[in-house]
């Protein structure tokens, strides 16, 4: 029996916390998407990632995934961990290419994440948006999300993740002779 496909729907319109990380990557959209969607290989490309593993893998490539990354603070690393639903929208699938996550466990439970991919001259614009209302902490929920967790942890990890995967995307495209295609 096959596992039902995860449908996370559209990204929410508004949340208390919003972080955006984006880069133009010199690689074909199909290649950039494939590198980003291969989440189990992220630790091979990203020294700050401790592990990525599927708890449940669906036939469409999505499923339930556990991720753990370090947020460096000078010589010290702060380990983080979360569990997410993951949905894939590959290029050529009838809608804009995207990878969607919804955190279902960890301090960031309820966070919606979208990686989007748009062709531009010489490559692809890759954008990561994180939306969240914050942890379930009365009184300091918004302050924690907007003042600390979003800018320090989410952006701190996502910006390193995007930069590291962009290098892997460009390296793979150059190796295949696809740069600027």
Mind telling me the CATH class?
Answer: Alpha Beta
Identify the CATH homologous superfamily. Answer: START domain
* Helix/strand/pairing category: alpha+beta
User: Rg to the nearest angstrom?
Assistant: 16 Å
Main β sheet profile = 7 strands, antiparallel
Mean pLDDT: 92
Q: Classify the fold: give the CATH topology.
A: Alpha-D-Glucose-1,6-Bisphosphate, Chain A, domain 4
Tally the beta strands.
7
Count of alpha/pi helices: 3
Number of separate structural domains? 1
Distance between the termini: 41 Å
Residues in helices, as a percent range: 25-40%
> What is the 3D shape?
globular
**How much strand?**
35-45%
Structure in words:
- There is one protein chain.
- The protein has 181 residues and is an alpha+beta fold.
- The chain has a single domain (17-176), classed as START domain (Alpha-D-Glucose-1,6-Bisphosphate, Chain A, domain 4), CATH 3.30.530.20.
- It has helices at 29-37, 42-45, 141-176; strands spanning 17-25, 49-57, 63-73, 76-89, 98-105, 112-120, 123-132.
- The chain has a seven-stranded antiparallel sheet with strand order 1-7-6-5-4-3-2.
- Strand 2 (49-57) and strand 3 (63-73) form a beta hairpin.
- It is globular and about 55 Å long.
- The N and C termini lie far apart (41 Å).
- The mean pLDDT is 92.
């Amino acid at each position: 029996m096959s596992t039902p496909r995860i449908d996370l729907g559209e990204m929410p319109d508004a949340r208390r916390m919003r972080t955006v990380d984006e880069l133009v990557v010199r690689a074909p959209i199909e290649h950039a998407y494939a590198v980003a969607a291969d989440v189990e290989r992220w630790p091979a490309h990203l020294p700050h990632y401790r592990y990525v593993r599927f708890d449940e893998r669906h036939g469409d490539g999505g499923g339930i995934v556990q991720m753990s990354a370090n947020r460096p603070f000078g010589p010290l690393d702060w380990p983080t961990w979360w569990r997410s639903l993951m949905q894939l929208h590959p290029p050529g699938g009838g809608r804009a290419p995207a990878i969607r996550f919804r955190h279902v466990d960890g301090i960031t439970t309820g966070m919606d994440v979208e990686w989007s991919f748009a062709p531009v001259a010489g490559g692809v614009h890759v954008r990561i948006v994180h939306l969240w209302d914050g942890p379930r902490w009365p009184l300091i929920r918004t302050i924690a999300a907007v003042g600390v967790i979003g800018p320090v942890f989410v952006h701190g990890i996502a910006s390193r993740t995007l930069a590291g995967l962009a290098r892997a995307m460009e390296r793979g495209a150059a190796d295949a002779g696809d740069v600027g295609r």
